[in-house]
């Protein structure tokens, strides 16, 4: 199993209840998982735990056989090799598209970095925009840059936090279709959280329905199983 999450528990300070309760999930290499739930269900907290931005009270997180979290282990976020795409894109406004993508590339020769940048620009269909700044791009193009920047270092896992929430409805459909094609083309394992069931069904191989930090149901989109839960 490529990603293993076992018995994860997390509680924020000054709260009386666990935000994540005994969460367990196994993910195959190359699989896309959607975490679906209402606001406050714990889905974004789960991503933060996987990324290392929060430390769980207990549980295990392992990726590709490497333990990132258990009772005796905690690997810092920058050493986990996880790519992140946020809902606000988090692009550097003073950097061009090319330089935004280059930012995460380290331990490479100048030539290798440029080759990787060109590869990513072609992948997200932005080769003609590399000298532009974020303010000169549409929302959909900015999201493509954020995706290219996250993919450039070849992360072991890619995570998305509400990636389409800032896009118009008409653009949202096109971008999510393009994103699924890119994820399958690269073969990267990915997890994204959303409150939109249509997004989850369009992108994911499986949907994990979460409520108040507890897994309610897991639906495989290849099996035709219908979920009893619907979130708006």
Notable traits:
single chain; about 230 residues; alpha/beta; about 30% helix; globular; disordered C terminus
Low-confidence stretches: 223-232
Order of helices and strands: EEEHEEEHHHEHEHEE
Distance between the termini: 32 Å
Please count the helical segments. 6
Give the beta-strand count.
10
- List the strand order in the largest sheet: 6-7-8-3-9-10
Average pLDDT level: 90
Helix content: 25-40%
> CATH topology of the domain at 1-78 and 190-232, which one?
Rossmann fold
Enzyme class: translocase
Domain ABC transporter: 3-232
Catalytic activity: a quaternary ammonium(out) + ATP + H2O = a quaternary ammonium(in) + ADP + phosphate + H(+)
Organism: Litchfieldia salsa
Topology:
Elements: E1 3-10, E2 20-27, E3 32-36, H1 43-51, E4 58-63, E5 66-69, E6 82-85, H2 97-102, H3 110-123, H4 139-151, E7 157-161, H5 169-186, E8 189-194, H6 197-203, E9 206-211, E10 214-220
Parallel strand pairs: 3-8, 3-9, 6-7, 7-8
Antiparallel strand pairs: 1-2, 1-4, 4-5, 9-10
Structure description:
By secondary structure, this protein is an alpha/beta fold. The chain has a domain at 1-78 and 190-232: 3-Layer(aba) Sandwich (Rossmann fold). Helices cover 29% and strands 25% of the residues. It is built from 6 helices and 10 strands, in the order βββαβββαααβαβαββ. The chain has helices at residues 43-51, 97-102, 110-123, 139-151, 169-186, 197-203; strands at 3-10, 20-27, 32-36, 58-63, 66-69, 82-85, 157-161, 189-194, 206-211, 214-220. Strands 6-7-8-3-9-10 form a 6-stranded mixed beta sheet, with helices on both faces. Helix 3 (110-123) packs across helix 4. It starts with a strand and ends in a 12-residue tail after the last strand. Its EC number is 7.6.2.9. One of its GO terms (cellular component) is membrane. It catalyses: a quaternary ammonium(out) + ATP + H2O = a quaternary ammonium(in) + ADP + phosphate + H(+). InterPro entries: AAA+_ATPase, ABC_SmlMolc_Importer, ABC_transporter-like_ATP-bd, ABC_transporter-like_CS, ABC_transpr_FbpC, P-loop_NTPase.
């Amino acid at each position: 199993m490529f990603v293993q999450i076992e018995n994860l528990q997390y509680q924020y300070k000054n709260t009386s209840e666990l935000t994540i309760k005994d969460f367990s999930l196994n993910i195959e290499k190359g699989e896309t998982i959607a975490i679906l739930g209402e606001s406050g269900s714990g889905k974004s907290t789960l991503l933060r735990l996987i990324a290392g931005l929060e430390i769980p009270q207990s549980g295990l997180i392992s990726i590709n056989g490497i333990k990132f979290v258990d009772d005796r282990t905690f690997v810092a976020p920058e050493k986990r090799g996880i790519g992140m795409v946020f809902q606000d894109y988090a692009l550097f406004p003073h950097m061009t598209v090319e330089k935004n993508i280059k930012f995460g590339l380290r331990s490479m020769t100048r030539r290798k970095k440029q080759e990787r940048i060109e590869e990513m620009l072609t992948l997200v269909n932005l080769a003609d925009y590399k000298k532009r700044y974020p303010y000169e791009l549409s929302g959909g193009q900015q999201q493509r840059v954020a995706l290219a920047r996250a993919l450039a270092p070849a992360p072991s896992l890619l995570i998305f936090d509400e990636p389409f929430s800032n896009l118009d409805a008409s653009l949202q459909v096109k971008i999510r279709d393009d994103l699924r094609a890119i994820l399958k083309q690269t073969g990267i394992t990915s997890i994204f959280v959303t409150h939109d069931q249509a997004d989850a069904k369009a992108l994911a191989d499986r949907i994990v329905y979460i409520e108040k930090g507890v897994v309610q149901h897991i639906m495989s989109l290849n099996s035709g199983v219908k979920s009893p839960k619907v979130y708006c």
